[in-house]
Amino acid sequence: MKQWILFIAGFLSFLAIVLTILILILGNKPFSDAEETAIAKVKDENLLSEVSRSYVYSNDQKSVTVIGTDSEGKLKAVFVPMGGQELSETELEGKITAQEARGIAFKEMEVKEVLHTKLGQEDNKTIWEVVFLTENDKLNYVYISAEDGSVYKRILNL
């Protein structure tokens, strides 16, 4: 009887682990596919010669941000809308970096954990989205202009 209980407990544990892994892989697949499609589109149009990173940026309209260097070696970001609209790009030379955006967002706040910092577009402006938890476990979104470092929008203490 004890062996049956151990067998059933072991089997259920194994099944739970397999299902969790499967859900994580299948849940991330649409984002991975969107990123791969955006990278291919950017390379096909010769906007970037080398890609360093890409991610999905969500606002009113989802887009994929692809960051890399062009054929002249300049650091650029290309924004590829998921709805099939026109691509837009911006040079990152002389703009606020992710680290500088975090510094601006964290002023006068006690940060416990940074969840992410992403570059995207809001109202045709290049914006850094900084998402973090404060010491009291409140979720905060701070949007920083990549042009001048001004605070575009804050959503605090969620």
Could you characterize the architecture of this molecule?
It is a single chain. The chain has 158 residues and is α+β, with helices and mostly antiparallel strands. It folds into two domains: 2-91, Roll (Nuclear Transport Factor 2, Chain: A), CATH 3.10.450.40; 98-155, Nuclear Transport Factor 2, Chain: A. The protein contains two helices and eight strands, in the order αββββαββββ. The protein has helices at residues 2-44, 98-105, and strands at residues 50-57, 63-69, 75-81, 88-91, 111-122, 125-134, 139-145, 151-155. The strands form two sheets. Strands 1-2-3-4 form a four-stranded antiparallel sheet, covered by helices on one side. Strands 5-6-7-8 form a four-stranded antiparallel sheet, with helices on one face. The longest helix has 43 residues, at 2-44. The chain is flat and about 70 Å long.
